[in-house]
Amino acid sequence: MLKRQRILLQLLADSGGTLNRTRLFKLAFLLSRLGKANCLENFYEFLPYLYGPYSFTLNHELDNLACSGMVNFNDDGKITLSAKGGEAANSLNEPGLSDDRKLIRNEYGKLGQQSLIQTVYKQYPWFTVKSSKALAKNATQINCRCTNYTIGYQAYQVDGLLNFLLKQGIPAAYRYET
After folding, report:
1. Among 137, 142, 121, 148, which residue's Cα sits nearest to residue 22?
2. CA atoms within 13 A on the CB side of 67
3. With DSSP H G I counted as helix, E B as strand and the rest as coil, what are the percentages for the chain, rounded to 5?
4. Residue 78 bridge partners (DSSP)
5. Which residues are 53's β-sheet partners?
6. Residue 54 forms beta bridges with which residues?
7. Spatial separation of the C-alpha atoms in residues 170 and 155, rounded to whole Å
8. What pLDDT digit, counting tens, does each position of 5-47 carry?
9. CB-based contacts of 82, cutoff 8 Å, min separation 6
10. pTM of the predicted model, to two decimals?
11. Measured between alpha carbons, how far is 100 from 75 in angstroms, rounded to an integer?
């Protein structure tokens, strides 16, 4: 199991073991932006999407965690940490991570869903550029000239690469379907 998956399980544990997908994504995004622990260097990368910051990698790994019995997807759309997932979360002891998780829990964990979303949109306007809600858009997308571009991609996860391209004004086509 990857360290970032265990951190994701810890975020679930910190929230009482159950979160909806939107809330989990927002908290993981905030941890990726605000956390200072070394283990977060390879945490999830995010890009602007229909409802703010999104990570295709996180979504995929969440499905894998469900297949391996670490989390359960409930009928009401919530994600619940299993006993096996709780053990995996507790097996990770990284210096500085507990302080980062405490910051996220204290600053953002008690916010209601809409307040959390509004806070993320306000603090990170770039990630609203693809928002499906016109009123939520706090940034405009840059469009560059049509030409050929090259980029080194090895330092990026797919989400980080797409985000970099968008920030440069290079259209990146991506879509998520279930």
Report:
1. 121
2. 7
3. 50, 10, 40
4. 20
5. 48
6. 47
7. 18
8. 999 999 999 999 999 999 999 999 999 999 999 999 989 999 9
9. 69, 70, 71, 72
10. 0.81
11. 31
| Alpha carbons within 13 A on the beta-carbon side of 47 | 26
pLDDT confidence band for 114 (50 / 70 / 90): very high
In whole angstroms, give the CA distance from residue 58 to residue 30.
Answer: 14
| Residue 32, CA distances (Å) to 26, 84, 97 in order | 10, 25, 11
CA–CA separation, 60 and 57 (whole Å): 5
Nearest CA to 120 out of 44, 54, 41, 42 is that of 54
Q: Which two tokens stand for residue 158?
A: 């797919």
**Locate tokens 């053990």: which residue?**
87
Residue for token pair 């990026």:
156
